[in-house]
Amino acid sequence: MVSIENMLESVRIYCGNYVDTQSEAISSASSSDEDVGYADTATEAISVAATSTEVGTYSDVCTEDISVSDSASAAAVSPLSTTFRYYYGSFDGKIYAELEDATSDDGEDIDAIWESKDLDFGDMYPELIDRNKTIFKVRVAYVDKSNAASLEVGVSTDGGTTWATRNKAVGTGDGTNKDAEFFFTSTGTYFRLRIRNKSGSDKFQWARLTPLFTDAGENV
User: Fold this and answer.
1) 134 phi and psi, to 5 degrees?
2) How many CB atoms lie within 10 A of CB 19?
């Protein structure tokens, strides 16, 4: 008697195709003098979707030439005008234009005054805001437009009620930038400064006003 069980089993796999070959022997329950053989062969083909691991590269180049042209007239590109005037308003609602060559107001002396607000110099020296200061000099930077122009500089420590003033004739009319110094001994906590030029013939233009002062102690 011959008994054969699970004698052979094999599987072969190929890329993209699957082939399964199976051979199997089965034993017989009855006895026989003859060998009984049973063979079963199955073949099956299976398609497998391929997977690509390549990285694609996309390149797009666009070239375009654009031509722009424009024209402008000479008037459109001319420089800004440098001629201008100063205008003033009066309390009765009138507007006056300043004439560069005028030195009087219809024959009357022009009383030109500039006056500051009350100053404590705390913008530059915060530690001196509430302390007394003594102004000992006021320096005026001006443009020399007239010979011996009349200039008055004033310092007030009471909000403009009273003024300490100094007068000086300044300039030679050479058109250069110059400084004039006026000496004071004015002590207070707050100061008001003033520049004045009253004349029917002078031209005067100031550029900067610089008070020089020292710490005068606590305000008691």
Assistant:
1) -120, 115
2) 13
How many Å apart are CA 188 and CA 134, to the nearest integer? Answer: 7
Give the span between the Cα atoms of 21 and 125, in whole angstroms: 103
pLDDT at 18: 40
110-218, which class in CATH?
A: mainly beta
pLDDT score of 64: 66
Can you tell me the distance from the alpha carbon of 65 to that of 70, in angstroms, rounded to the nearest whole number? 17
Lowest mean pLDDT among 46-55, 86-95, 176-185: 46-55
Return the structure tokens found at 4.
């054969």
The pTM (predicted TM-score) of the whole model is 0.56
CA neighbor of 140 nearest in space, from 195, 180, 183, 194: 180
| Domain definitions of the chain by residue range | 1-49, 110-218
